[in-house]
Amino acid sequence: MGDFGTDRVSVMQLRSPTDSSPTSTALTFKHVEKLGSTGYGGFSQQQHLTYHDSKLAWDGVVTLKDILQPKGISPFPMGSVFGVIRIDNAPYGCTRNEIVSVLTKDVMLAQYPQPSAHYGVYFPLDMQNQRATGVIYVEVQDMAEAARQVRVFMGNKEQGRRRRIGNREVNLSISDQGQLMKVVFDKAACVNWDSSGRPLLHPPADSSLDGFKGFVHVEDLTTFVSMAAGAAKYARTQVAKEYPQRPYEALLAILRKYPCHAWEIVPFHECNLLYDFANDMATALREQMGTNLQWVHVLHRGLMNEIISAVYSFNGFSTPAKQQFAARFG
């Protein structure tokens, strides 16, 4: 895990955005320097300022009135407007293209980031047994689009046109962001999710138990890295042997769905943890690409580019961290 070192915040003289004299009532938050820092993956002090008002970001100039203004308290969207479709009984080794083929040709998929060809398709894993579940979630533009897709699917089913992936007949139903977040962050204790994917903390049922400690667990991240790094040499599990892309898709799911908008409860250390996790996974992918002809269609440069894009879009990483990651794996 990266060490944040010592923060040195450079605060410019009091001045007005419209006045060059240093005697008026505005602050310029110039920058935050990281001294002795080797891990840029977490929130910087400056980024915490930006959560209160986007005008505080980077080299921006802010007046006292701006600071006290209650509107626009967070630049991050509170939850998600994307609709969610649940697909059941999918083959464990199916690809995203096969999943999308079940939907209509004009489906409006959620994109990460917009616009791009990186879509929100999620393959939950049973971490206890290290195997797939056969349940897949797909994000679309909004709930109306999710309802349309399920309606078309059910209409075709009633007419005898059943959709299959491989030799399995699949079923579609409407889900929501809360269910998706519960699946992606299934180990998060004392957290409920509303239908837009916002986390709502609650105390533990038993006062002797620990409460909320974070959205991800080190043990799960370590398992993902082990599954990815040891796929070629130790293909002992179903995931590592038959669909080695799943751990990387888990990384994408965590980065895309991590609730950065809930900045007041995000554990400070978790962003460093996720940055190290992304580096380890990208390193494993780089080592695996091209080593097994059986996997060239799932472990490829396109997957690496998608990981880089997810890292760049993650609001919990600083700009130097993103640049360092892209320079290393781009």
TrEMBL record:
Task: Region Disordered: list its residue ranges.
Answer: 1-24
Polar residues bias: start-end ranges: 13-24
Protein name per its UniProtKB record = Uncharacterized protein
Q: Which organism is it from?
A: Coniosporium apollinis (strain CBS 100218)
